[in-house]
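User: Can you help me understand a structure? I only have the sequence.
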Amino acid sequence: MISTLKRIWSNTKDFGKMSFIFRSVSFFFAVVVIFLHFFESGIPLPVSFYVTLGVLVVIPPAYFLDYALGGSQITTAIKHLIIDLFIVGWGIGLINLSLVPSAIYIVAAASNYIAIRGFRQPYYFLLVPLACIASLSLHNFEIRLASSQLMDIVSVCYAAIHFLTLAYIMLLYNQRHIDNRRVIEEQNREISSQNEEIRAQTEELIVLNEALKEINRQLEKNVTDKTQESIIKTQLLAEYAFINAHELRAPVATIIGLLQFFDYPVDHDFRQEVIKKLKITSINLDDTIKSIRIKLESQGLLSYPASELGKDMKITQTNAKDQSGRLESF
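Assistant: Let's start by predicting it. Here is the structure, written out as tokens:
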């Protein structure tokens, strides 16, 4: 049982704990004031006193359990404050509206309500006179504004404890509010810093994206240019192929025609004349091929090192001399 109560106490928020302690002290002083009122007046303690005593003993732990069960602390506090207004009205009716204690308890209850709710829904304050009238009705509406010195002293002590405690609670609340605001401001600064970092990264990504777009545009342009260049080169090659076919056809046809003379018996002088024409035609063919190659290179349609071209020319000339020698010996 004790361990259960300890667990409930430790799990309950500070507001519930302070409510329990605060009301236990307040109700204790209220019971003392009511008891002194009847005792000093020489009036036997009525049944209403014992009923009130039982209620005031039960209410603080009941309030505490209400907080322990969870829910909104503000809503729970407002509900308890409304009940407190009725209890205060009932109590001042029991002491027959003794001026000093009644004024202190009314101001204390009002200050509690205003500290939580402000001046919203002020009609709840009507519970004080209604409860007071109900309590006075049990004593034939007898009113005694004067109170004993001891009652006044106890009431003033309660007032001091009440308002000092209330001031301390407000201090704790304000300090917690300041701490929470400081934490929120720190979080806001951190969020702002993160937002700035995200903004900077976003701007950097935008710049990189633009750079990538520019690179892609350049690549597309290069591909388009290369494609267009390839198309133009292909067209030029086709044109050169068509033109050069006619330029090459004449010397090749001449060589083929001259070679046919070797299929028939001819005298030596005629053979030498044919060989001479073959040499001239072969040289003309070689010149034509070199001319075509130079044209292709000038248009960028053929890439071949000049040294290799020289080697090809020498090889061609050597082969021509070899073939000529063979024809002469034939």
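Now, to help you interpret it: Residues 326-330 have pLDDT under 50 and may be disordered. Residues 27 and 57 are 8 Å apart (CA to CA). Let me know which part you'd like to focus on.
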